[in-house]
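Researcher: Let's do a round of design. I'm pasting the structure tokens now; please hold your answer until I've finished.
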């Protein structure tokens, strides 16, 4: 059953628990693409990023700032052009309205001085330096779509309840 924003202050659907993937991204892999490729290799369509930590050669992310002369905050890009520790991240592996991967990952990094920054990590801007350990939890019976939300005027997640898959259908998933 779907509960909509127009009826209450939230929207949510029930997901069934799927498999748990535990792994490591190798040096040079992009943080977000690597997580997506791990999902692809195991036939996982939607997942929660439960844990993610390691090191990056550089970091690219966005965080909310109010640009000069404006009144509303916007996601503004930030780049750290040196090796950083990726202290932790969490997010969701979703899709766009056209079905393409659209992963939403928040995290924090610390630089050589210990200064901590973080935000919404950007695809193709976060190469793994030494390693990136991760745990992904597959989410079944739901569709997670990242699309423009007219209420916030930003890209947000929309949820759809899917019919429960049978145990037989789940066991017949095509793997990597």
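Researcher: That's everything. Go ahead.
Model: Designed sequence:
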């Amino acid at each position: 059953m779907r509960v909509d924003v127009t009826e209450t202050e939230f929207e949510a659907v029930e997901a069934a628990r799927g498999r748990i993937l535990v792994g490591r991204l190798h040096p040079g892999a992009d943080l977000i693409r690597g997580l997506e490729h791990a999902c692809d290799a195991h036939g996982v369509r939607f997942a929660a990023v439960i844990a993610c930590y390691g090191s990056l050669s550089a970091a690219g992310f966005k965080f909310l700032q109010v640009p000069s002369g404006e009144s509303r905050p916007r996601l503004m890009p930030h780049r750290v052009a040196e090796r950083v520790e990726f202290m932790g991240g969490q997010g969701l592996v979703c899709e766009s309205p056209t079905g393409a991967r659209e992963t939403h990952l928040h995290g924090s990094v610390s630089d050589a001085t210990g200064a901590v920054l973080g935000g919404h990590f950007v695809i193709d801007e976060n190469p793994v330096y030494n390693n990136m350990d991760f745990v992904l939890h597959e989410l079944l019976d739901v569709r997670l779509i990242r699309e423009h939300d007219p209420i916030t005027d930003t890209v947000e997640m929309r949820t759809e309840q899917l019919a429960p898959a049978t145990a037989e259908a789940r066991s017949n998933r095509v793997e990597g």
